UniProtKB/TrEMBL annotation:
Ranges of residues in domain Palmitoyltransferase DHHC: 88-203
Keyword Signal found: no
Domain topic, free-text comment: The DHHC domain is required for palmitoyltransferase activity.
Gene label: Zdhhc21
A GO BP annotation: protein targeting to membrane
Keywords, in A-Z order: Acyltransferase, Membrane, Transferase, Transmembrane, Transmembrane helix
Gene Ontology MF: a single term: protein-cysteine S-palmitoyltransferase activity
Protein name, UniProt field: Palmitoyltransferase
Ranges in a coiled coil: none
Superkingdom, natural source: Eukaryota
Species whose genome carries this gene: Cardinalis cardinalis (Northern cardinal)
UniProt-listed Enzyme Commission number(s): 2.3.1.225
Family: Belongs to the DHHC palmitoyltransferase family.
Amino acid sequence: MGQRLHFVVDPQGWCCMSLIIFVWLYNTIFIPKVILFPHYEEGNISVVAVLCYYFCSLFCVASLFRASVADPGKLPENPEIPITEREHWELCNKCNMMRPKRSHHCSRCGHCVRRMDHHCPWINNCVGEDNHWLFLQLCFYTQILSSYTLILDFCHYYYFLPLKKENWDVFVFRHELAFLRISAFMGVIILGGISRLFYTQLMGIFT
């Protein structure tokens, strides 16, 4: 399985990735500042909950970058075709190169990809034979982080004890409700979309 670096020059993909990174940064900064650290200082949660959130966040962004720069299975310009597999290869009518069956030509990347599933603008890369497992990892960690964020948003208002030492002079705490509503909205949107995509991917693998 190839692990070569692969970069796609696509402004639309860069915009989509920038949006994902913004959502990740937003929650990684404000959720600990508004919920985790204050409740930890007052003894409402343990340090394990704080560390788990940061680990989930780290795994999520690491899998995003790995999926975005990993080679999805790009075919070389002059591929060596084994004699026993020549009947399973065909000519691409877009790039005029021989490719194995189940390969597809990506118009955004400009080349054929082995077992291409789709081109994902959110990682600015194709999902193919060599990075499909990385894409599934990204979906899995994103579901965990989104679910964890929504649980913390809910518990902050309906389960945890009220904070005793809130610094209302700090901008974050003066606008706490707005920050957490934005966080919850983003969490619901991302969790719904990623869960549906992850389920579709798994069903495709199983069938």
